What we know:
Blueprint: H1 8-20, H2 26-68, H3 77-96, H4 120-125, H5 128-137, H6 158-169
Amino acid sequence: MLLSAANTHDIKLFEPLLHAVPGVRGHRHRELHGRRVARHIDTARAVDCQRIHAIVALTAQEQAAAAAEPDSQAPSGAEAKGEAEQMFRSRCVVCHGEKGLGNGPGSTALNPKPRNYTDGTWQANVTDDQIKNVIMYGGAAAGKSPIMPASPDLQSKPEVVDELVKIVRGFRPH
């Protein structure tokens, strides 16, 4: 999933840097310096992508472990709310951010960016069932970004999913 920095957009973004570097004169020198800048961009993006993949893999491992645990009984309302809040902090905040803006630390290298839950238009046009579907089955199952992981462990915990939907709805602008 490495993104190439040697594209026109990135070079255009860093063009002012190329002209500002002392001793970089002429097209050939700017081209060589541009390649160095592009390598640094590639390295930064690769690190971000590796972090995101590690976070997604860790989340998948947590979900698999939780799914393997026997579910003795459904959580009560207060327990479901607490479990949903903990899950949101551990699984969702990484990409969606604490305030639901889609600007979590894992979102920097994602394209498309994670959903901004404070978007009033989106909140008005999405149903609770659609949100539940994305939470349980992932983005790809809903025709959204495949980077959004599924949470199959929540299929047996509808009360927790309902509480997660309430958390998402809580970001709705008033």
